[in-house]
Amino acid sequence: MKILITGFAPFGGEAVNPSWEAVSRLPEQFQTSKGEAAVLSKHQMPVSYNRCGQNIEDFIRRELPD
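^ that's the sequence the OP posted. Answer follows.
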């Protein structure tokens, strides 16, 4: 199973964005409570309304998460 998870890039002059910091610390793989292997497909999103939609669509097409 492939799971898509996103966080946002830093913005407003900040060096980090806590949402991306949390996502980046998640494991690459884990086992679900049902014993299924799961892979996290992580992606950092731009903090831009105009770019975010296309960005996530491209990522979904490329990674094909479940």
